Amino acid sequence: MELQLPFFPFFFTLLLFLILIVKHGKNPKSRGPVPKLPPGPRKLPLIGNLHQLATGLPHHTLTDLAKKHGGIVHLKLGEVSAIVISSPEAAKEVMEDP
C-alpha cells in the first residue's frame, strides 16, 4: 500500500513556511535607520525572548536579567520589542518631563 498525501494541505503548509522564511529574512536596512537599543539577552528567531519568560516566574526572570544586563533591558517578545525598566533611577529619568 502506498501512502499518498493530500496535495492541497501539503502545498498550503509548504507555501506558508516559505512565506515565513521570506518575511523573516528581509533586509532590516531597507526599513530605515535602526534605533540604538539597550542591551538584552540573545534572542531566538520568531519567538525572541519568550522562551526565557516561560521557564519560571516572570518577575524572577526579569530580576535576573536586570542583574545581568543593567536597569534597562531590551526584550523581543515575538515580533514586539519591549524595554523593561527595573531600577528606580532609570524609571525616574524616563518619567521626567522634557
TrEMBL record:
The keyword Membrane applies. The chain crosses the membrane at residues 6-22. Gene3D superfamilies: Cytochrome P450. GO terms for molecular function: heme binding; iron ion binding; monooxygenase activity; oxidoreductase activity, acting on paired donors, with incorporation or reduction of molecular oxygen. Keywords: Membrane, Transmembrane, Transmembrane helix. The keyword rRNA-binding does not apply. SUPFAM superfamilies: Cytochrome P450. This is Cytochrome P450.
